[in-house]
């Protein structure tokens, strides 16, 4: 296939992903607002009855979401980004005919239940699955197929956050070891991201998803953003290690008893929190904006940081389809506000500094956990529209990344891919030993 044909396919993939990504977003929002309203307004439940019904509803959605994954497409568990990176390395197979329906329906159920998960992972996986389907239909293989997978994944990220530039950079920076870079594949990624963004804007509007107005920071405040980066570097390493620890412990629990017990319990808790403490549920993008504008007190911020951290670990460890971008951004916002509020008790801060800390923290924690500081910087700019604080964001992100590396941290998706491959190797060895024993 010539360059023109390949680029047409990439653009069509991007447009299709824009449609599917928008449908996924709207479906999640519809379910997340629909079932609580049904229990509270239509059935007119309140008090303990409402909490019990909410817990049972969220638990049921979580268990069904996990059943879909385990029964039909185990690789649809989690965000899907490690799967795409593995496929681009030739280590994983994208079974698009299974992943597409399971990731979409299972993702709607898991995110719509209120679990602390993001929609960007599923849309990236959906995008790459659409790309694999297009590659099969076009009989593309090798470098062209791998390039198209990257284009589909980028289109998924563009659809999730309406951030086409960050989507392109995500491929260049995050998948730098796997992406078959050439002018042909690079242009394909750009075209797919653009097509997805255009379709997404047409269907859902062209306003920064987490718009936060903020004024420019004086130069004297810049050292404080370096300090924030240092803090976030440590938080990012702790986040990654705790996430892997949680996944391993929940897996061992499932092997001893049932893989559905823990997700059911988490679902029950989340269903209650949807009504009792909604700040502890969902991806948290809107919560991040609310907190940045309201800036609650130190004690409440510390409580929200702890609660969001725990619920993110619990939600991702269930094994359902869902990403960690959005929970990372919400957690980062809260950490940034906590840092700024603590600093404000000691020194006088310029106007809008707390909001600037919240914005910069998003880029910083992204850089520390994902290991892609440039993507973090640009993604935050596209999400918030806060270009006035670009320099503070860059300082925070790069220092967070430097500290994370100094502490021995590694990109979370790289760790998760290695973990998946190790588990599969262990399973194959166990099957071989069992066969030999027979």
Automatic annotation (TrEMBL):
Transmembrane segments: 6-28, 49-69, 148-172, 184-204, 224-247, 259-277, 297-316, 323-342, 354-380, 387-407
Keyword Membrane (UniProt): yes
Top-level division of the source organism's lineage: Bacteria
MF annotations from Gene Ontology: voltage-gated chloride channel activity
GO cellular component entries: plasma membrane
Subcellular compartments: Membrane
Record keyword Ion transport present: yes
Gene3D superfamilies attached to this UniProt entry: Clc chloride channel
Major site of localization recorded for this protein: membrane
Protein topology in the membrane: Multi-pass membrane protein
Keywords: Chloride, Ion transport, Membrane, Transmembrane, Transmembrane helix, Transport
PANTHER family assigned: CHLORIDE CHANNEL PROTEIN
Name of the protein described by the UniProt record: Cl-channel voltage-gated family protein
Source organism (scientific name): Ancylobacter novellus (strain ATCC 8093 / DSM 506 / JCM 20403 / CCM 1077 / IAM 12100 / NBRC 12443 / NCIMB 10456) (Starkeya novella)
């Amino acid at each position: 296939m010539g360059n023109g044909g390949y680029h047409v396919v990439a653009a069509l993939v991007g447009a299709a992903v824009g449609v599917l990504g928008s449908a996924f977003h709207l479906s999640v929002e519809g379910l997340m607002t629909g079932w609580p309203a049904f229990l509270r307004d239509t059935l007119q439940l309140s008090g303990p009855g409402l909490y019990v019904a909410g817990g049972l509803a969220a638990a049921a959605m979580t268990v069904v979401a996990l059943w879909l994954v385990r029964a039909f497409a185990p690789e649809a568990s989690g965000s899907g980004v490690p799967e795409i990176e593995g496929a681009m390395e030739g280590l994983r197979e994208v079974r698009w005919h299974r992943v597409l329906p399971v990731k979409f329906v299972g993702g709607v159920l898991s995110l719509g239940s209120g679990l602390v998960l993001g929609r960007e992972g599923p849309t990236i996986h959906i995008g790459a699955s659409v790309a694999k389907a297009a590659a099969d239909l076009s009989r593309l293989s090798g470098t062209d197929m791998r390039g198209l997978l990257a284009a589909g994944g980028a289109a998924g990220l563009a659809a999730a956050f309406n951030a086409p530039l960050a989507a392109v950079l995500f491929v260049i920076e995050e998948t730098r070891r796997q992406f078959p870079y050439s002018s042909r594949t690079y242009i394909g990624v750009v075209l797919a991201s653009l097509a997805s963004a255009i379709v997404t804007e047409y269907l859902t509007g062209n306003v920064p998803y987490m718009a936060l107005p903020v004024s420019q920071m004086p130069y004297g405040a810049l050292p404080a953003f370096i300090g924030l980066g240092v803090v976030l570097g440590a938080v990012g390493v702790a986040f990654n290690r705790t996430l892997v620890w949680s996944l391993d412990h929940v897996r061992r629990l499932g092997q001893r008893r049932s893989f559905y017990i823990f997700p059911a319990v988490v679902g029950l808790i989340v269903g209650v929190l949807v009504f009792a403490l909604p700040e502890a549920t969902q991806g948290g993008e809107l919560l991040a904006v609310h907190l940045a504008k309201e800036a609650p007190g130190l004690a409440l911020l510390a409580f929200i940081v702890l609660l969001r951290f725990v619920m993110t670990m619990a939600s991702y460890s269930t094994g359902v389809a869902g990403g960690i971008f959005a929970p990372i951004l919400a957690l980062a916002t809260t950490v940034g506000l906590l840092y700024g509020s603590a600093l404000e008790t000691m020194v006088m801060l310029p106007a809008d500094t707390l909001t600037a800390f919240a914005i910069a923290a998003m880029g910083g924690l992204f850089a520390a956990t994902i290991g892609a500081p440039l993507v973090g910087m640009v993604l935050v700019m596209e999400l918030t529209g806060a270009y006035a604080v670009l320099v503070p964001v860059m300082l925070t992100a790069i220092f967070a990344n430097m500290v994370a590396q100094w502490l021995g941290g590694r990109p979370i998706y790289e760790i998760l891919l290695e973990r998946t491959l190790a588990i599969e190797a262990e399973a194959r060895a166990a099957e071989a030993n069992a066969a030999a024993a027979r």
